[in-house]
Amino acid sequence: MEFKFAKRVENAALSAIRVIGEYAVGKPDFVLLSIGNPAYESFPIERIKEMNMKIFESPESCRAALQYGSTTGTDALRDHLKARLAKYKGIDFEKNDVFITSGSGPALDLMPQTFCEEEDCAFVEEFTYTGELLALSTARVKPIGIKLDSDGMNLEDLEAKIKANPKGKYLYIVPTFSNPTGITYPLEKRKAIYEICQKYDLLIYEDDPYGELRFQGKDVPCMKSFDTDGRVIYAGSFSKVMAAGLRVGFICCDKGCFGKMNYCQGNRAPATVTSQMIISNYMDTYDWEAHLDAIRAIYGKKAAFMKECIDKYVHPACTRTDPDGGMFIWVTLPEGVDGKEVFEACLKNNVGVVPSFGFAADPVNNPGRSFRLNYSAPTMEDIEKGCKRFGEVTHKFCK
Amino acid sequence: MEFKFAKRVENAALSAIRVIGEYAVGKPDFVLLSIGNPAYESFPIERIKEMNMKIFESPESCRAALQYGSTTGTDALRDHLKARLAKYKGIDFEKNDVFITSGSGPALDLMPQTFCEEEDCAFVEEFTYTGELLALSTARVKPIGIKLDSDGMNLEDLEAKIKANPKGKYLYIVPTFSNPTGITYPLEKRKAIYEICQKYDLLIYEDDPYGELRFQGKDVPCMKSFDTDGRVIYAGSFSKVMAAGLRVGFICCDKGCFGKMNYCQGNRAPATVTSQMIISNYMDTYDWEAHLDAIRAIYGKKAAFMKECIDKYVHPACTRTDPDGGMFIWVTLPEGVDGKEVFEACLKNNVGVVPSFGFAADPVNNPGRSFRLNYSAPTMEDIEKGCKRFGEVTHKFCK
């Protein structure tokens, strides 16, 4: 039969990241700087094994782990989260509550489902996380891209676009070690954005999967910490600080929208109870802050080395960000260079870097000429090899 | 702030099953015959532990288990599934393919997302699985209930409703040990339904989470086995035959819609790789058919005992189904009895049974006067106690 698909998926296509992945198949020498995976060496494998085994020590915990779980998550993990988020992030749990999701990816669907009708809009950075673009496109909510300055969204452009798009329902923002740019918003800018959203009664989805990965500079308070209205929905994840494969994330939001947001998880169960128990057992048993420090050290070392390699191999007319944490460096080519041509030349030179048009809210009119380079997943050897190959291409295209 | 919710969640309310669950809190003598959980004693705990540990034996499998996985699932589990589905269900894998989902619940969202616009319709049994109703309501797709005969949907009503609802996009059906009724459709009826769908070019979502739980009678071929057009999307789950907490389900569909359906999983990752590896390791190591036989024996014993208890305690004016497998018996009260009153009297008599209005496509105009009794989750003692209490209520309301 001829399948008639819904409009929302008619134009569904492979993302740039998957295009690179498929191109690389069967090419053993190809270097992927394109995947946003956490570093293997950051997974505490032996301890995860131990915490996993602990589940099987009592019939009660076996039963809990192997049966359907609560739609809000286990109390043990939620309690750990509330304690940490209150202590380290300054979030008020009189007004707010937390529920577990199966990673921070699936949580992205909850905003369109809870607050948007089809044809509504959401405001995003002009180059933003592909998962948010996917969540918006499957919900048929339109992304409106806001110009980026070196310290985050341009405030004038944000206010102008909000005025021009009255069907805008929320702002999606990754204010700490953003994906793809690595940018961290200073406190004043976070507050100014909050005030603009207050003025136009807009919700804010503060996505913070990388927030614990700071390896230099000083912590900046999350937007949720100064949220007096309940307009900030804060999302986090254990994928980058424990193991991505556990698929555990969480949403922290005002009690006034908690029930509806959690309802919108619907049949999508939260994370498996086993994964939740592994993490809460870990927090019971080991020093979580020391664990985070160990991961930060790994990422700091890799980021420093990638910066060195970029500065050594990439054409000096290119600029790059200097992230204080997270997983990505954003390299921008000089004006006049065609990002698509550079992207294709990179593939031919056996290196995968993700072009800005893969992250663009408006890839047709604003494709950009930047590239996201990931330093968390590759080995040190591959970081150097990949930067060298990317550098060779930039020298071909830059004058 | 005052939250403005999307229309689709404005009227979101607790399901009857959760109403019962909340009513039971703090009442230790309350008997739940309302939960659709698999039997604890059916989980092969020691072997799951062993297969889980096996993952940690090699660095390669650790890495795979703890990293993000493929959006289609692991090749090992997909290969096992293809071999089994071809051998035992007669599904053709030249035309079809299979991808993994995080349980069969989240898979329900894929039909509305892939094939429906808002305000479209889907055809369902007049009393159907609550998860499907939830998936439809969050997608704002309207359920159209088809009258049930003792062997499944009434064919005349099905054809009349299809004609009357041109925006109908698919038929949702649980033809084997249906939830909530326990009905199994005979082969001729399955074929007649397929022909009607063919005539009106309608897709069929064949949900089969209970299909492996036959404890009496003979297997009936699944609808997918005689699907020549690719119009049947077949969904299955390991929740009832391994452990619900693993959250592993799958979709088997024509290659022509495979990509779009899998795309609609979007950020919702499939099941954790760990869960997938536990199951495929199990299938590598142990005799899967013997494992299924052991579960079937447990369910057969419990079902037989519940039937005995119903026949002993429930008023003889009530009728019940005689399921050949699955988890549920459907008890229907005589005409003139008010299901809501009986439901409330049951709560007061310390027994939770789910009223038909909780499963109704149209709860206002067609609430029914039946109850779903679950025998998989409760102990034998609770089965008897619960049926006795439910029976007492029926004697109060039936003449």
Q: What is the assigned CATH homologous superfamily of the largest domain in chain A?
A: Type I PLP-dependent aspartate aminotransferase-like (Major domain)
CATH topology term of the largest domain in chain A: Aspartate Aminotransferase, domain 2
Q: Which value, in Å, is the CA radius of gyration of chain A?
A: 21 Å
- Which pair of protein chains has the largest interface, and what are the residue counts? A-B, 68 and 68 residues
Mean pLDDT of chain A: 96
Element pattern of chain A in H and E? HHEHHHEHHEHEEEHEHEEEHHHEEHEEEH
- The count of DSSP E runs of length 2 or more, i.e. the number of strands of chain A, is 15
CATH architecture type of the largest domain in chain A: 3-Layer(aba) Sandwich
Spatially, the strands of the biggest sheet of chain A line up as: 2-10-9-8-7-3-4
- Oligomeric composition of the shown chains: homodimer
DSSP helix count of chain A?
A: 15
Keywords:
homodimer, about 400 residues, alpha/beta, Aspartate Aminotransferase, domain 1, Aspartate Aminotransferase, domain 2, 7-stranded mixed β-sheet, 4-stranded antiparallel β-sheet, 15 strands, aminotransferase (chains A, B), pyridoxal phosphate binding (chains A, B), PyrdxlP-dep_Trfase (chains A, B)
